[in-house]
């Protein structure tokens, strides 16, 4: 069976359920009948130690949920999502759901009877349905693979969800491309049709179009730099979006951080580990960057940018300074230029990560700590997993402790000659 849905066909439920039992009891995966998309998701769910018999955890109560989703970018798209999906969900006894990029449900709406049934598996606003927390499911898996996904019945990793079918598509910021979350349609077997997937994809595109219309225009005399979670930064300037080389990304990060400018010697020390690199090499890089940006954009003596820069890492820093920890984490899609070894970038990266980790630990909010711990950059962060274990309610602690014990075992096994992995150190 292919990874796309063929019209009029759906998985053999009994065969998939048997394959699920075999996999969850002994780890053996049978293909067919399991689609590769689903098989890969089951493997990730097992590595995350998701229990097939567990339930999703509700992380945000009514008060926290209302404040969080009011400030979320997807709130601006909800009118068009409701217009396109609301009547369809109610008439078909389905649910429409919208989650954030961490898989946390922000809105779950639809037919009253179906809503009551969904309560039994905690498919409710405020609950986390990321794949790493709740196993294979359409919104969580759509976020994990960043593509539209349909999950049918027994393809769900958790047994109590196997009576449901769902289709979801990711939604991105139309200006930066950052993943914002996903829209989902959930219900019974009637959704096991290619039209359901096409429908939710169309809703996601409409939501992005709505966000593009409502987003404030970028001033022509400002640069917008996106450098978090990527090795090659994006620069938006004059209506263009440029993908920069790694070295040009490092130069712009340093200059954005130092708007007053830096001398040639300072910039050389910020960019190169090798002290034998000559100023000629740096001037050549700056010349190429000036050719890309325009002759007036980059000035010298000292080296500086001629226009203001809206940098994503600076925005996270400002939010932390104001105490807006949730907003800071929401704007942090990953470490600053994670592959860079430029000394100035490394210092900025570690400083920002350390400040954010300290704020999360001090806040001791289980949901925010879980956002970090279950992220790609936080999955090996022992200290944050310990903070999460101390913060979560006892009923939610077993999978966290299991992950923490596994990390401790890895550290013990490789302790000789190795440093403890930091928040961005990957094995």
UniProtKB/TrEMBL annotation:
InterPro entries given in the database record:
GAF, GAF-like_dom_sf, OmpR/PhoB-type_DNA-bd, Sig_transdc_resp-reg_C-effctor, WH-like_DNA-bd_sf
Q: Does the keyword DNA-binding apply?
A: yes
Q: Which SUPFAM superfamilies match?
A: C-terminal effector domain of the bipartite response regulators (SSF46894)
Q: Which residues form the OmpR/PhoB-type domain?
A: 239-305
Keyword Transcription recorded: yes
Keywords annotated in UniProt: DNA-binding, Transcription, Transcription regulation
Q: Please indicate which superkingdom the organism of origin belongs to.
A: Bacteria
Protein name from the UniProt record: GAF domain-containing protein
Instruction: Give the source species.
Output: Streptomyces solicathayae
């Amino acid at each position: 069976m292919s990874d796309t849905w063929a019209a009029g066909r759906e998985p053999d439920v009994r065969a998939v359920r048997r394959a699920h039992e075999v996999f969850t009891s002994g780890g053996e995966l049978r293909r067919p009948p399991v689609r590769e998309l689903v098989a890969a998701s089951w493997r990730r769910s097992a590595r995350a130690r998701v229990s097939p018999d567990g339930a999703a955890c509700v992380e945000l109560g009514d008060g926290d949920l209302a404040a969080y989703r009011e400030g979320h970018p997807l709130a601006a798209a909800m009118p068009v999502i409701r217009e396109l999906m609301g009547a369809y969900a109610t008439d078909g006894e389905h649910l429409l759901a919208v989650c954030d990029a961490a898989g946390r449900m922000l809105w779950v709406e639809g037919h009253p009877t179906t809503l009551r049934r969904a309560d039994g598996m905690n498919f409710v606003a405020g609950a986390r349905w990321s794949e790493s927390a709740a196993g294979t499911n359409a919104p969580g898996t759509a976020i994990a693979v960043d593509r539209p996904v349909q999950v049918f019945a027994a393809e769900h990793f958790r047994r109590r969800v196997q009576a449901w079918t769902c289709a979801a598509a990711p939604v991105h910021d139309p200006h930066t491309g950052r993943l914002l979350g996903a829209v989902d349609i959930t219900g019974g077997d009637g959704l096991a049709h290619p039209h359901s997937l096409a429908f939710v994809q169309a809703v996601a595109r409409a939501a992005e179009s709505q966000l593009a219309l409502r987003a404030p225009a970028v001033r022509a005399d400002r640069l917008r730099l996106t450098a978090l979670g990527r090795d090659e930064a994006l620069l938006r300037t004059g209506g263009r979006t440029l993908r920069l080389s790694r070295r040009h990304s490092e130069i712009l990060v340093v200059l954005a951080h130092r708007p007053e400018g830096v001398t040639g010697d300072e910039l050389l020390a910020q960019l190169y580990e090798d002290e034998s690199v000559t100023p000629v090499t740096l001037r050549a890089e700056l010349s190429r960057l000036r050719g890309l940006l325009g002759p007036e954009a980059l000035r010298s003596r000292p080296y500086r940018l001629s226009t203001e820069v809206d940098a994503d890492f600076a925005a996270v820093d400002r939010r932390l300074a104001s105490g807006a920890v949730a907003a800071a984490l929401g704007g942090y899609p990953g470490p600053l230029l994670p592959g860079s070894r430029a000394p100035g970038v490394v210092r900025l990266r570690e400083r920002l990560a350390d400040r954010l980790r300290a704020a999360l630990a001090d806040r001791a909010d289980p949901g925010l700590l879980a956002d970090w711990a279950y992220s790609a950059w936080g999955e090996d962060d022992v200290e944050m997993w310990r903070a999460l274990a101390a913060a979560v309610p006892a009923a939610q602690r077993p999978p966290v402790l299991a992950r923490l014990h596994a990390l401790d075992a890895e550290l013990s096994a490789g302790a000789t000659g190795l440093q403890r992995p930091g928040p961005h150190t990957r094995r």
